[in-house]
Amino acid sequence: MTQVSLKALANVSRDEFAAILAGPPERAAAWVAAAAHNGIVEAQAVYGQYLLDGHGVERNAGEAFVWFRHAARRDHPMAMNMLGRCYEHGWGTAACAPVAVYWYRLAAQAGLDWGMYNYASALALGNGIECDRAEALRWFRRAAELGHAKSLNFVGSFYEDGWVVDADASIALAYYRRAAEGGDFRGQFNYARLLAERGDIAEALQWLQRVPRTATAAFIAKMRGWLAASSVSAFREFERSLAASVNANTHAPTRAATNFMPEPQP
Prior knowledge:
Blueprint: H1 6-11, H2 14-22, H3 25-37, H4 41-53, H5 61-72, H6 77-89, H7 97-109, H8 113-125, H9 133-145, H10 149-161, H11 169-181, H12 185-197, H13 201-208, H14 217-228, H15 233-243
Helix pairs in contact: 2-3, 3-4, 4-5, 5-6, 6-7, 7-8, 8-9, 9-10, 10-11, 11-12, 12-13, 14-15
């Protein structure tokens, strides 16, 4: 990796640094690494992400964990959240769900929407902490108020399923719509599904067609199962059009899926 001197780092302007970050990944990584090593907390968090993703540097989850921990200990909210992700998934450290929850809680309390979402998800699913859906809903709502699309979708699922609130399909539909408009593929699917139940097939199909743009392969496989089992011919036709573009190793489920619950995200 190219070495960046402290003098160069001190003299670079904000606009010049922004241009460096937008340029070749290897050069961006060198500058961010220099800033991280010189104690700039934001750079430490970003460099951790570069290492985790292999952006301009060789992927190294262990080193990513170290840099996330440096920044998290200096109260950087996203670093706290990513440290939680490392502990949840065993990225660069031993997996430990309760420790992941500890860092998610701190990120949430610091006002980070992703921290709120991941902490709420742990509470809702009882992952590393005792299940508490009422508290989970409180945190999902706080993130939703910030416009966090995945949290909007999860609040919709609370109202659809009647978790700690009275079931209300109309309220669920409104939350799913906002999640869909915010770009969440689960929100797009759930909004389309409820639209279809109300007979608005044309608009539902429009939203279903957006899902594969950002959805995971596993989610597309589940959606294909739902489409294939549908009584709506347009949905079955859409499933057949998806089949050609789906990895040959991905198999649709044999049972129709309904409200797919989202997983925690960075």
